[in-house]
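User: I'm putting together a small comparison set for a docking exercise, and I want a reference complex before I start. The sequence is below, and the ligand is C2E. Could you produce the 3D structure with the ligand included, as structure tokens?
Assistant: Of course. I'll restate your input first, then give the structure tokens for the complex.
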Amino acid sequence: MGNGINSGTVGRKLADSRYSKFILYVSFVVSIFFIILNGVISRRFGMTSFSIGKMSIPTSGISGCVQAISVAACFVMVMSDYKRGAILSMFSLLFSVFGIMQGILKSGSMASLPGLVNCLLYAVLIIVMYKQLKASDYTAATDAATGLPNRYGFERELENRLHSQERGYVVYLHVGGFQDLNVNLGRKYGNQILREVSERIGSVMGNKGEVFKIEGAEFAMILPEGVDYSGMILDMVERIEKPIEVTKNGVAVNCYVKADAGVMDLYDRELSADEIMLYTDIAMNYAVNSSETKLCTYNEDLKKQVARETEIEQLIKEGLREDYFYLQYQPQYIMDGKKLRGFEALVRMKLPDGSIVSPGEFIPVAENSDLIVDIDRYVRRRAMNEFKEVCHDAPDGFAISVNVSAKEISNPTFAEEIITDIHEIGFPAQCLEIEITEYSFAQSVETTISNIKELREHNIKIAVDDFGTGYTSLAQLLNLPVTLLKIDKSLIDNIESSEMNRDFVKTVIYMGHLMACEVISEGVEEESQLRLLNQFDCDFIQGYVWSRPLEYAVALGMCRSKERVRVS
Ligand code: C2E
Ligand code: CA
Ligand code: CA
């Protein structure tokens, strides 16, 4: 067994080396050369001996050495490429047998019999070696859980395709949510789910292409040119995302996974296998991170976009170190009488050359990495520092709102960190408002809820941002100590033209009040929208109609002027 693994490993190393083909053919030439040499020596010198000084070497001794070299070359051939090597070795050995037999028949002497027996034994050895290498190659190139060829098998196949100049498509398919299932149900069930996923992939693929399992929860496919890859992959994704039933302790459980895919068209003959794998990976990651697409094909635009995102990620890191960030504050007004209710802090990034990167561009990049957590913390601390004095003698209800990413609010230590910051900075807790999005509840409901409750115990306000764009039902919110609902701009935009939106906004305001929540409409741009919101009893307004986001000094000035009025 140990030997098998060793010869397999050595064989794979040789086979994987860049020179494997060269080694194979050189060994073949060496082997044939020494077989011929052996024949010549036996025929010309027969049973004579050679003398070196006092030493005498019989021709059979020399012949044995020459044969050993040709056999060694056969072994090297099998090691460098077990399939072709075995065929060429067999040819060499047969050639040798043929030569020896001819010699025996011609001379009528059986002196070369040991050489003949050796050849047959070596042939058996080579067959054994071939079988072992084949088995070890299968194990090395096969994924144990699904029985599919693995990354090693995929890379080898891709190299082969590239060498043979074949066109087609490389696809990576990511199965999301699998890690959680593995943790919650156990590895055994995780493997069962993966097998089901691979069967669903196979059922769509049929014999149109090849499937590989390249990572824990990633599959790769090689599809031939001309196949309708997008229809095929979207069909796969749809089937994979259907419930997968597993039975645990006699109870049937429906499990759900997500699937996203990236595709690379093998039209560019100049690309190496490494580049193809990298670009397919980029396309797949784009699909994984995008809520809009399940399938992304790598192209020049994506390349530019990824390069820009990488650049922005660097700028964010640099900005956090070198202080490229600053805040603008957008006023929020009490509907009744247009009095100031507070501000939403909005982060801005100004580069040393004076150019501005919009939050619409850098916030999504930050959200895809953990940098958003650092940005939010920076914004929160800066806003609290900039407004702590104003807030100390502010009227009741005055609030500075800060945005919090879904990532952060689902972090178990989030509430604790905020409370520590408040104490350290000396900011009045009741003036801080945390804006969370509906998406926060999709991340980790229990931790999010416990964070919200803890923050409320310290009188910190909680607003639900972008309300109406997600799936949170009002009933779900009823159980939470949320203090403000922020109706999203997209609903306000259509409030006049769409009766459905109008009814929805009206209901949200009504229900919000029943839940003892206040309601703010954001993105209000028109007087006509204001009038409708006033009719529906909306409490607060944030929008260009009354003010755009302002520089800190202007916002501070507003607080110190007469615009600041007591609320509630
Ligand atoms: P958001 O939290 O929904 O913020 C409101 C956005 O709407 C702001 O855009 C604001 O300038 C804009 N807005 C307000 N009123 C109007 C209006 O009447 N018309 C129009 N067209 N737009 C209006 P901004 O500052 O570009 O921010 C965009 C998004 O970036 C924010 O949306 C928020 O999701 C994110 N963001 C900004 N600052 C932060 C931050 O400190 N942390 C986090 N996590 N996200 C932030
Ligand atoms: Ca917001
Ligand atoms: Ca919003």
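The first helix runs from residue 2 to 16. The pocket of C2E (ligand 1) is lined by residues 330, 346-347, 359-360, 363, 372, 375-376, 379, 403, 405, 465-466, 522-525, 542-544, 549 (CB under 6 Å).
User: Thanks, that's exactly what I needed.
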